[in-house]
Design brief:
By secondary structure, this protein is of the alpha+beta class. The protein is 31% helix and 34% strand. Keywords: Dioxygenase, Iron, Metal-binding, Oxidoreductase, Pyruvate, Repeat.
Length: 350
């Protein structure tokens, strides 16, 4: 089982195309203009995004945007045995809301996922992204996807994805600040190719609750993009004016103090300098200090401060997720939201 395509419904596809292609280094693979919708396929050898905008009110994208801000509508999966999934759907009582016709090149079916998210499940074959030539990309694939759900829905959502797709819990987090908190579970597919994390707010003023209010329900909060060289990748993105969440200088003071205490000398002096300059987060386990997680997060990319991208490097095949980085991300988003007029966004939507 693998991720096939992430489908975005957005107000302005050309603006999103500019970010992903001109500033983040992905490829514009195709453009398709229909009577009511314009769609771009963007990606590279290892990932595929569909970016669709409405041309008029008859577009299905327009219907989505009446209910939600720009964001992810569908996370599509490629499976080796579609019939097995069909049997599971029947057993679990999950309705198929659409399916392939004889004219389609690939056999597929579509179901309602958690909240407004849909999942198109496709019989494995070459996707458009797989058919592109291998190029020297700074982004090498999708590392993980994060779904935000309402308070009390974390366990039911985890169980839903476990029962249907066989995802298992890899890690559990309880993140708290002096202002708010969240609970989270990191899921992984049995083949290890899909990481799917789920968050719920643990306080009424949590930034997860802010997302749910602005998105008008559960939805994909962010997608993490893999890179093999985050320092070079982020330096290039900075040069192209990609905006990232700011990290306080005190974070790096504490980080270097921890590294010295634990005698973690796996970064050069130059890399430490770049880490702070580019405001990249870093974490590691004391039991495997050579396995380093390096992460950075864009500011929200659409008209409403909901969805954002992450860029991640798993140095020396680092596994899972770091408590320290998760905490720092939560605090950074909390600070960002504090400085935004979120009530203004809510007023526009109401």
């Amino acid at each position: 089982m693998e991720i096939d395509c992430i489908h975005f419904c957005v107000v302005d596809a050309t603006q999103t195309l500019d970010l992903l292609v001109d500033r983040m280094g992905l490829q514009n693979l195709s453009r398709c203009a229909r009577e009511h919708t314009i769609e771009y396929l963007v990606g590279n050898t290892n990932l595929l995004f569909s970016i669709a905008s409405p041309l008029n009110a008859a577009s299905p994208v327009a219907d989505y945007l009446k209910l939600h801000p720009s964001g992810v509508k569908d996370v599509s999966f490629r499976v080796g045995n579609l019939e097995e999934i069909r049997c599971k759907l029947s057993h679990l009582g999950i309705e198929i809301i659409d399916r392939s016709s004889e004219d389609d090149k690939r056999e597929w079916l579509r179901i309602q996922g958690w909240g407004a998210i849909e999942h198109t499940i496709i019989q494995a074959s070459k996707s458009a992204s797989e058919q592109t030539p291998e190029l020297n990309n700074t982004i090498s694939g999708i590392d993980h996807i994060v779904l935000n759900v309402a308070a009390g829905e974390l366990e039911p959502a985890v169980n839903w994805y476990r029962e249907l797709f066989g995802f298992e819990v890899q890690q559990t987090f309880d993140i708290q600040t002096h202002k708010s908190g969240l609970a989270s579970k990191a899921l992984i597919s049995d083949c290890g190719k899909i990481r799917f994390n789920i968050n719920e707010p643990s306080s009424t003023n949590s930034q997860i609750q802010d997302f749910l209010d602005l998105n008008r329900g559960s939805g994909i909060q962010h997608i993490a993009l893999q890179t093999h060289d985050i320092l070079t990748s982020i330096d290039l993105m900075h040069q192209q004016a990609v905006n990232f969440l700011p990290i306080p200088q005190t974070y790096y003071t504490k980080l270097q103090s921890r590294a010295k205490t634990e005698q973690n000398l796996l970064l050069t002096d130059r890399e430490w300098q770049q880490l702070e300059q580019l405001q990249i987060l870093m974490d590691w386990s004391t039991s495997t200090p050579e396995e380093i997680l390096l992460q950075i997060f864009t500011q929200p990319i659409f008209e409403s401060p909901t969805f954002f991208f992450e860029v991640i490097e798993r140095r020396n095949r680092a596994k899972g997720f770091g408590q320290g980085n998760f905490q720092a991300l939560f605090e950074a988003i909390e600070e960002y939201n504090t400085n935004q007029d979120l009530e203004g966004f809510r007023d526009v939507r109401d």
